[in-house]
Amino acid sequence: MSNATAMPVLFLSHGSPTLAFDDVPARDFLVRLGARLPRPTAILCISAHWEAAIPSVTGSDAPSTIHDFYGFPQALYDLRYDAPGDPDLAARVVKLIEAGGQNALISSDRGLDHGVWSPLILTYPQSGIPVVQLSLMHHKTPAEHVALGRLLAPLRDDGVLIVGSGGAVHNLRALDWNNRTGITPWVGEFDQWLGDKIAAGDIAALSDYRVQAPNATVAHPSEDHILPLFVALGAAAGKAEMVAGSLLHRSFTYGSLSMSSFGWGV
Q1: At a CB cut-off of 8 Å and minimum separation 6, what does 165 contact?
Q2: CB count, 10 Å around CB of 3?
């Protein structure tokens, strides 16, 4: 995007569902983040926790809070993020995607999963800013998610904050619940490579991370938590072949989760 007034694009690592209560650096970062950004007219969030056969968008004017996890303290299930929806924005997202040659649909009864509200409840607590969620595409590649993101770039000129929410490193099999802010070496190696390529604006290398990045299949046994980054990358780039982003925050939790977050135009 060449327009200096365009809204930033973010990729946020949301970590454990308990982030709203955890005393960790990533929580402090998210609490302060909103003050660093221009106030958006609306937020379009792409979460790791919704995949669909074709791009799908929440269309409710009052989306519910989905608690899509189990085994956590009751206080977490009592949380509600009562952000309004934006049916007009949902319709525009569908129109942009369809204009790019893809089918898309509106899901009128779906709420916001914790990939959306877990970071936003800290960054924009009960702010009244409308929030719309866009799904990932089931069985699609990073490059295809970059292409999807490119279709969304015009929304930035209308004050829409586009947020990918996932995890820079996300391996639940290697979690160490007694190591709240710890890191294992392979996590750091992948995380550093990711940050370096984002800073270089190297969309091609990032899209081929499964081959080029160190420890890629260990860092992401499945791709769901990194795919939102590629949608954000495409939205930041628009029609450009490269787009440099910046590291906004880096910390680690439970040994195998990177909480690194990145921004474009911040």
Answers
A1: 11, 12, 14, 45, 46, 47, 48, 115, 116, 118, 119, 228
A2: 12
- Residue 179 CA to residue 182 CA, distance in Å, equals 5
How many angstroms separate the CA atoms of 164 and 133, rounded? Answer: 10
In tens, the pLDDT along 187-225 reads 999 999 999 999 999 999 999 999 999 999 999 999 999
Tokens of 38: 């221009």
Task: Report DSSP letters for 67-96, one per residue.
Answer: ----SS-HHHHH--------HHHHHHHHHH
How is residue 112 annotated by DSSP? B
- Those residues with Cβ within 8 angstroms of residue 242's Cβ, 6 or more apart along the chain or in another chain: 200, 201, 202, 203
Query: Of all helices (H) and strands (E), which one includes residue 261?
Result: strand 261-264
Cα 174 to Cα 9, 16, 170, 226, 253, distances in angstroms: 30, 13, 9, 17, 11
Q: How far apart are the first and last CA of the chain?
A: 13
* Residue 62 DSSP label: S
d(CA 15, CA 199): 22
Q: How many CB atoms lie within 10 A of CB 185?
A: 8
Instruction: Please provide the size of the chain in residues.
Output: 266
pLDDT tens string 8-20:
999 999 998 999 9
Distance CA 257, CA 226 (A): 12
In degrees rounded to 5, what are phi and psi of residue 153? Answer: -55, -35
pTM of the model: 0.95
Is the pLDDT score of 182 beyond 80? no
Distance CA 122, CA 264 (A): 20
Burial 68-80 (b: 16+ CB within 10 A, else e): eeeeeeeebeeee
